[in-house]
Amino acid sequence: MKFPKNLTAKLETRKHNNALRKLAAPNDLIDFSSNDYIGFSKNKAIFEETHQYLMDNNCIQNGATGSRLISGNHKVYQEAEDYIAKFHQTESALIFNSGYDANVGFFSSVPQKGDLILYDELCHASIRDGIQLSNAKAYKFKHNDFEDLERLIVNFNESNKSNRSNSSIFHLPSSIFIVTESVFSMDGDCPNMEELIAVSNKYNCYLVVDEAHSLGVFGDPEVSGGEGLVQMLGLQDQVFARIMTFGKGLGCHGSAIMGNQELKEYLVNFARSFIYTTGLSPHSVATILIAYQHLQSEKESIEQLRDNIVHFNQEKNLLGLKPLFVRSKSAIQSAIIPGNQNVKSIAGQLQEKGFDVKAILSPTVPEGQERLRFCLHSYNSAAEISEVLGLLSTFVY
Known about the structure:
This protein is α/β, with parallel strands linked by helices and 397 residues long. It has helices spanning 5-16, 44-56, 75-87, 99-109, 125-132, 146-165, 193-202, 229-232, 261-270, 272-275, 282-297, 299-318, 340-352, 382-396; strands at 30-31, 92-96, 116-120, 137-141, 176-181, 206-210, 241-245, 255-259, 332-336, 355-356, 358-360, 371-375. This is Pyridoxal phosphate-dependent aminotransferase family protein.
């Protein structure tokens, strides 16, 4: 059949703007692009222990067989969710098939008509997509700007107060949901969580934090070192919901929403991306469980990642590259190089030298904010970090 002309035109526009996305083939380059921060995706012990766990529990089953509400709620789910809840010091955890499913499920079902969602302007596309499916009003606030956030809250409260005084109809109190990420996926920076929680508590808001790029990277070394930024700061009891994604630091797949038991019960009943999809296979859920257990036993990988982050920041300062980079103490380090063609050219030169560094193009990021996104890992050596930054300095100066 013929392809619709308007869709062809959209593809041609992408090509004209040097912004056409393509699936990359696997390569043997030095990894500075994947989200496998502590190497768990290639961890042989996790692979073997997952298999052994399934054999020991007589779980010889390739698929979940259906949604969790029909036939797919196999016994591995309960053990994994109990373990995750205990690990993250929360009442409950509910596993979703992916971080995308978790965000779409949460934001499309929890905020109600008459409620307000205030989200950081750099929040992930999955959060935005979930918000678009919600019946609540939504506004973005300037990135990590809590004065702008507070202005929006005050305006909403004043408008609500005026509407109630002018109406004889009984209204349930409106809820305000504040949404942020503990590590932003394109910039790698973090919000001031203490200040954000102070604003949230001041106005009785519900704070939601996506910790996709924080799990396995931030944490208390006395516990595991990788439980996430919120827990590292001891603020887990003041956050309404945390979304943990397992495709980054845990090196596997899936996600979980953590909160109180009522939130879990609500999501099971109303989150469509949970209700109307086949569950994860026992092997997938067992991998999540075993990976969590390794977070507590393999602290060396997390420590090595932190050392590499420090070394990267020191090297970029020594080479005079600091002005290019967004300030970050996470495993994501982004150098702003405006222009799709320009940033693609420099990424290509680094790849020719053996380093897998990816260009992030507009419209994924705003025009003029195109960038090289360096993802650091526990398995990158200090020499590799120094060399790739040395090459970058010769290509941009």
